[in-house]
């Protein structure tokens, strides 16, 4: 699903991620490093912070 997003959806969306690496790249790293359960939790937490109302950019 992440590969589909990066290949098909991300190129047509405006650049809006507050973080480096981007949230989708971070998610791929989290899934590879921590597995599905913890990777999903970390990805959800990251996405909650990556919005206009979130706090200042903090790299993980």
UniProtKB/TrEMBL annotation:
It comes from the Eukaryota. InterPro entries: Membr_insert_effic_factor_YidD (IPR002696). Signal peptide: none annotated. It holds the Pfam family YidD. This is Membrane protein insertion efficiency factor YidD. It comes from Solanum tuberosum (Potato).
């Amino acid at each position: 699903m992440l590969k589909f997003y990066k290949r098909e959806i991300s190129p047509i969306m405006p650049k809006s991620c507050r973080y480096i690496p981007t949230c989708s790249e971070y998610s791929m790293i989290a899934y590879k490093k921590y597995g599905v359960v913890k990777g999903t939790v970390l990805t959800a937490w990251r996405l909650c912070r990556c919005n206009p109302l979130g706090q200042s950019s903090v790299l993980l």
